[in-house]
Design goal:
about 170 residues, alpha+beta, 60s Ribosomal Protein L30, Chain: A, six-stranded mixed β-sheet, two-stranded antiparallel sheet, 3 helices, about 20% helix
Length: about 170
Amino acid sequence: MAHRRFRKFNTKDTYPEQKLGNDLSMAVRAGNHIFLRGQVGQDLDGKMVGVGDPGRQARQAMKNVKQLLEEAGSRLAHICKVTVYITDRAYREPVYLEIGRWLKGVYPCSTGLIVNGLARPEWVMEIDVEAVIPEGEEKRRPITGPARMAKAKGGRRKAKRVRRKV
């Protein structure tokens, strides 16, 4: 099975002031494993949220995490590992309180790091997430068109699903 890449982009568009040109994705699904690009206080359209407010940045980052996992066929409950980067020890409490609200009852492994800075000076936190969809919980591919009905023995009708190739 080929890896599925979601929300592909090039860094020359994301960081036009830098001489970059890397092809990246916001999420990659490899089988049942989901890897997300580090999420920050910026919405998925690139708009900055919560400048100077680590709690608001964490809230936006977790909104992004939830949305990206869902786009990849996963959910927050599937998160296994998080790595949290903060630029000041004082940000630990507001950032971790917000992340904890989103991951209540999930119990992922977690690593936290205090770093000198992130890719943009207004970013004060970043969360890196890995998730694994448990066997039997894989989301089915969307069905295209109405379910077709085919006559079966005994006059009963069975639904025949038509799946779209992805």
